[in-house]
UniProtKB/TrEMBL annotation:
It comes from Streptomyces griseochromogenes. PANTHER family: PHOSPHOENOLPYRUVATE CARBOXYLASE, PHOSPHOENOLPYRUVATE PHOSPHOMUTASE. SUPFAM superfamilies: Phosphoenolpyruvate/pyruvate domain (SSF51621). It comes from the Bacteria. Belongs to the isocitrate lyase/PEP mutase superfamily. PEP mutase family. Keywords: Isomerase. This is Phosphoenolpyruvate phosphomutase. InterPro entries: ICL/PEPM (IPR039556), Pyrv/PenolPyrv_kinase-like_dom (IPR015813), Pyrv_kinase-like_dom_sf (IPR040442). Its EC number is 5.4.2.9. GO terms for molecular function: phosphoenolpyruvate mutase activity. It is an enzyme of class 5 (isomerase). The keyword Transport does not apply.
Length: 296
């Protein structure tokens, strides 16, 4: 039985949530030992071949989060952009995600059209309007364990540290179970300052961060700074792009797969990852020779 995000945080275990975009990437992340999964908008959008700019619908994001949920037993944090609409949409969104067994949603305080935080042109939501979304989200959850993470984009949108800290207090008062503080500096300076100033100002909920640009800062260093959860949002899909490009260019150039065979997963590994061995329908055929190529 995996520990919940709340339990991990209570035990002071850093929660490393790795961004995944489908069932297979979720299975691989669980095998690798991560504590939680991030069903991220960038990865899921990219897997659909579209930009992370509010293009996919709530239904599409929800379906992919459910696919991730069903493939693993790890806690799943779903990135739900700015909630996909106003408070009424947020209420329905929470019901959909909570009833599907998703452990947490992360809602960001940006206005539509929301763009990925590493792009430009962000419009921050009014703190009071966003606080109502958090209240609506919290009042719509059915399971006690469900978490609503309020994501602060002040430092992404060029606003001040003071604004970030005051918003954090407003969102926590509205019921947020945790705050995600996002920064795109190359160092964790903003994260460290926010953590210190927010605590001094009275913030008590756990903090999450997204160490994409300040990647030289380790999990332990971030934990020391008061960060409970680290979201590695895009590294897995970036790595898979590199792997796919490598295989594609080799195959295109070589005209056969022979040279790359030692570098790619065997069919046996692939079958095993998705539990093919446990199929009853296949067991009844076990006396027969495997299909051609199945030993590869
Ligand atoms: C995502 O993975 O979609 C995120 C995290 O929201 S970030 O790309 O850092 O904005
Ligand atoms: Mg996102």
């Amino acid at each position: 039985m995996n520990r919940t995000i709340r339990q991990l945080i209570a035990d002071d275990v850093p929660v490393r949530a790795i961004g995944v975009h489908d069932g297979l990437s979720a299975i691989l992340a669980q095998k690798a030992g991560f504590e939680a999964l991030w069903a991220g908008g960038l990865g899921i959008s990219a897997s659909h071949g579209v930009p992370d700019a509010g293009i996919l619908t709530m239904t599409e994001f929800h379906q992919d989060a459910v696919r991730i949920r069903r493939s693993t037993t790890l806690p799943v944090i779903a990135d739900v952009d700015a909630g996909f609409g106003d408070v009424d949409v947020v209420r329905r969104m929470v019901k959909l995600y909570d009833s599907a067994g998703i452990d947490a949603v992360c809602i960001e305080d940006k206005q539509y059209p929301k763009r990925n935080s590493f792009l430009d042109g962000h419009l921050l939501e009014e703190p009071s309007v966003f606080a109502r979304k958090i209240e609506a989200a919290k009042s719509s959850q059915q399971s006690d364990e469900f978490m609503v993470i309020a994501r602060l984009e002040s430092l992404i949108a060029g606003s001040t540290m003071e604004d970030a800290v005051s918003r954090a207090l407003v969102y926590a008062k509205a019921g947020a179970d945790a705050i995600l503080i996002h920064s795109r500096l190359k160092t964790p300076a903003e994260i460290e300052t926010f953590s210190r100033e927010a605590r001094t100002a009275g913030l008590t909920v756990p903090l999450f961060a997204v160490p994409t640009t300040y990647h030289t800062t380790s999990v332990d260093q971030l934990h020391e700074m008061g960060i409970a959860g680290m979201i590695y949002a895009n590294q897995l899909i970036r790595g898979s792009i590199t792997a796919m490009e490598h295989v594609l260019s080799r195959l295109y150039a070589d005209g056969s797969t022979t040279a790359m065979e030692p570098e790619i997963s065997t069919l046996k590994e692939l079958f095993s990852l998705v539990d093919t061995d446990t199929l009853d329908g296949l067991k009844s055929w076990s006396g027969l020779a495997p299909a051609v190529g199945a030993q590869a």
